[in-house]
């Protein structure tokens, strides 16, 4: 394994957002690691999913949404995985991307987004303004095991994860629990967010813990407006699929070209809605500044009655019923007679009158002449009616900033696993594909089964990228660290022969003896107190010995055997 491969494979272990950005294969590698994990397959045993056995993918997906919302929190604590610095990370990735490319595309390195993000001060929104100078958070993506282990941290009553963690969890769970084929899932990453597009019914987008259908995307609520934020305002950096990936900065791509074209068409279709009464109401809900120019009309006891738009939206806010959907009449019945007027309000246009004009004139909101015609019709009631029409178009149609399709495409063996397979069949198939598909090979490093991986990437990641361990033990002597580690519970957050990284042990205060030994080595190496170690790993123990002869031993239940020599020149592995 050469230096470049070692950097990439060790990144599959740590999975920072920056590493995923530079090595786009890692995104799907984590999905496959989660699919291999027994943690998600155990969900199948839950009563809520047992009851849906044999039901449609849609029913299972909707139940999965509720399960994820119940079991996981969205974690935006940037300090969870400690701190690093820009110079260190820039030097790491210089062989792949220039500092200018990184700074222009990654939030940790100065990316601010377009005008929208300047307006909302996105660095303050994400908490990035707390870091000064060269210091940045080590923003890591969690495996499902690390997400589940948040329950062990103070202040958490459920699992947790940031947006990339939740998107990879959703993709894996959609496959394992809802039975949605990998062919029908596309991962969509932007500099500040990660979402999935699922090709089911009219399309579904995962957004952190939620699922957003096309009708929800355009309903004009605050939640939906937030879900739109990334795709509406950001360049899509990566699209990942079971056939490969494409990246906005790289000239080469591995995703199937025809499927990428299909995805682009599907996403654009999802992001465009027709001009009808329901969507006009949705637009007004999303843009309440315009409500003072509109009113709604209905017939009540045989006579016309009028209600101000902002009043009706106020009723809607506390109701199960919505304007212009199938529950509209029930909403109107909830309005107090005091809020109705027998007379049309002179300086407001009736929405019914507006829709009659749109239908009669066959207004195409995408056509500039039709928008001008619409604006002229509204001008007596709506100041700057042309801006209103432009805002309506912007609401009804989002043009995603996708990676250019004009790439040099290189085909790799696609990942063809079936939702009908057992977990064991999936792992056996992926094992057979490792030498044909680099993403699959990387998935085993994200999965962390040390009987299936070269030790060097894991060790490199553990020694070089464990800031939480160093911070937590900075006031302890080596002997005090050893005493602390010995007193921690001996359970690993990973099953079998899979290993946690030192910072996972430090964050969750539990770890197997092998994991504890790596934490000790990481802290001593980072301090500069020791640089040379030998680590003897046996099925029931792990012993770290320093160059000056100090020995730190821990009990293990991992059943692993390895002899590792770690020094400033690298890692030597013996079995």
Give a verbal description of the structure.
The protein is α+β, with helices and mostly antiparallel strands. It has three domains: 3-272 and 401-443, no CATH class; 277-396, no CATH class; 452-574, no CATH class. The chain is built from 28 helices and 20 strands. The strands form six sheets. Strands 8-7-6-5-9-10 form a six-stranded antiparallel sheet, with helices on both faces. Helix 1 (3-14) packs across helix 24 (455-464) and helix 24 (455-464) crosses helix 28 (513-527). The longest helix is centred in the first third of the chain and has 15 residues, at 57-71. The protein starts with a helix and ends with a strand. Residues 115-120 have low confidence and may be disordered.
Q: How many separate domains?
A: 3
Percentage of residues assigned to helices: 40-55%
The total strand number stands at 20
Quote the beta fraction: 15-25%
Largest sheet: 6 strands, antiparallel
Distance between the termini: 17 Å
Q: What order do the strands of the largest sheet run in, or round the barrel if closed?
A: 8-7-6-5-9-10
Structural class: alpha+beta
Radius of gyration: 27 Å
């Amino acid at each position: 394994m050469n230096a470049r491969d070692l950097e990439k494979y060790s990144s599959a272990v740590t999975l920072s957002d920056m590493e995923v950005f530079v090595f786009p294969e890692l995104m799907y590698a984590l999905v496959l690691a989660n699919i291999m994990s027994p943690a998600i397959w155990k969900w199948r045993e839950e009563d809520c999913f047992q009851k849906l056995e044999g039901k449609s993918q849609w029913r299972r997906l909707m139940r999965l949404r509720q399960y994820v919302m119940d079991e996981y929190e969205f974690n935006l604590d940037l300090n969870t995985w400690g701190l690093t610095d820009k110079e260190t990370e820039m030097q790491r990735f210089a062989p792949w991307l220039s500092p200018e490319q990184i700074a222009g595309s990654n939030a940790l390195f100065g990316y601010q987004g377009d005008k929208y993000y300047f307006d909302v001060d996105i660095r303050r929104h994400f908490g990035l303004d707390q870091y000064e100078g060269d210091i940045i958070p080590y923003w890591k993506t969690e495996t499902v095991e690390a997400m589940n282990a948040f329950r062990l941290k103070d202040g958490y009553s459920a699992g947790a994860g940031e947006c990339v963690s939740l998107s990879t969890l959703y993709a894996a769970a959609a496959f394992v629990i809802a039975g949605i084929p990998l062919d029908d899932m596309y991962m969509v990453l932007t500099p500040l967010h990660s979402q999935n597009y699922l090709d089911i019914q009219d399309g579904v987008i995962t957004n952190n813990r939620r699922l957003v259908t096309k009708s929800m995307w355009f309903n004009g609520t605050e939640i939906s407006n937030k879900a739109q934020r990334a795709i509406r305002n950001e360049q899509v950096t990566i699209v990942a699929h079971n056939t490969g990936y494409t990246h906005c900065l790289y000239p080469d791509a591995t995703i199937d070209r025809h499927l990428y074209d299909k995805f682009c068409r599907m996403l654009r279709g999802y992001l465009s809605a027709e001009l009808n009464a329901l969507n006009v109401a949705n637009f007004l809900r999303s843009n309440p500044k315009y409500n003072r120019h509109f009113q709604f009309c209905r017939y009540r006891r045989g006579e016309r009655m009028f209600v101000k738009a902002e009043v009706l939206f106020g009723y809607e806010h506390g109701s199960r019923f919505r304007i212009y959907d199938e529950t509209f009449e029930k909403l109107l019945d909830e309005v107090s007679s005091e809020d109705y007027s027998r007379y049309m309000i002179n300086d407001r246009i009736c929405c019914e009158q507006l829709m009659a004009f749109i239908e009669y004139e066959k207004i195409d909101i995408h056509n500039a002449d039709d928008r001008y015609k619409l604006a002229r019709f509204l001008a007596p009631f709506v100041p700057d009616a042309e801006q209103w029409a432009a805002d309506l178009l912007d609401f009804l149609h989002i043009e995603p900033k996708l990676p250019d399709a004009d790439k040099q495409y290189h085909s790799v063996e696609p990942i063809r696993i079936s939702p009908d397979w057992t977990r064991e069949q999936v792992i056996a198939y992926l094992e057979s594909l490792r030498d044909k598909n680099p993403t699959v090979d990387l998935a085993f490093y994200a999965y962390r089964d040390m009987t299936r991986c070269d030790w060097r990437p894991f060790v490199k990641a553990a020694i070089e990228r464990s800031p939480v361990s160093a911070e937590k033990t900075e006031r302890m002597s080596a002997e005090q660290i050893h005493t602390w580690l010995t007193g921690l519970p001996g359970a690993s957050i990973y099953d079998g022969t899979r290993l946690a990284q030192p910072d996972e042990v430090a964050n969750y205060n539990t770890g197997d003896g092998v994991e504890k030994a790596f934490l000790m080595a990481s802290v001593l190496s980072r301090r500069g107190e020791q640089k040379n170690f030998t680590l003897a790993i046996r099925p029931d123990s792990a012993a770290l010995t320093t160059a000056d002869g100090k020995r730190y031993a821990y009990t293990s239940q991992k059943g692993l055997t390895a002899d590792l020599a770690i020094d400033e020149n690298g890692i030597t592995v013996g079995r």
